[in-house]
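cron nightly-structures :: item 1 of 1
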Amino acid sequence: MTELLMIFRGVVMGAAEIVPSIGGSTLALVMGIYDDFIEFLNQISDFIKGVFKFVLRRQTLKELKKDFKNIDLKFGVLSFLGIAVALALFSQIITRLLDEHAVYAYSFFFGLVAASTSVPWGEMKKHGFRELLVTALTFILFFLMLGIKPTVVENPSFIFLFISAAVAISAIVLPGISISFVFLLFGVYDFVITLLRDLLRFSVNFEKLVDVAAIGFGVLFGFLIFVKLIKKGLKKYPSETMGLSVGLMLASLRVLWPFFNAENIEAKLLPWEVPTEQLSVSLFLIVLAVVAVFVLRRISDSSNLKDLS
């Protein structure tokens, strides 16, 4: 049962990564496994660095084996198996929902993120001036950033893909923003999601392999940097780091605002300006998402920072 629960949590996180502005780390927080997730990523980061040191003869094989033994393989394998299943099964389903039923998809996602903000807020040990300042500044900065309409890049270069992937991977550890959304900001979301579909269909050529390599190297580079930064932040400044998460999640609601013209997502509306039937379904889905968050919290651990504080 424990193994199945780990896979299920991975599936939930993987599905969230496909959706712009949610992210797997947001659902990891809701499910109470954020600390385990960050710790596992930190263990992987240590092992990768150990491999480089071993190749450069700055670390012994014995030390490298020790780094490997420190990895919680059970948690990692089962969680990422779930993530892989979600990417394979839901990448086309979710993108189709966003294309054909955007109003209702965004309603559910809006409720999901709005309810989830209560989790990092509750994890904050202090709600003093400094913590509230971090939350407010993060909210304002990202609220403004998320209002920028990205330019679609049709044929990104190797360097551009590398940089966008390096920044995007930071979303794997930052609640309130997804890898998909960072790619969206860089204008390569459609390019990357199409590349993912082609890989799953084994429709590849040399040019696509080069693109995959650019993304892979970017992910590796960003991963080694951001995981350590978040781990240190959670250890030294847990309340401020959780405040940053709250600010990010609140800002992401700008992108997920579910009240808009069904034929034009850019035409934002106030709730009372939406047709009655559309408003009723949207509100129902928002409430349903809030209930879903409550249920996920009920089956989770009590704290996300028990092993990191």
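cron nightly-structures :: done
The mean pLDDT is 82.
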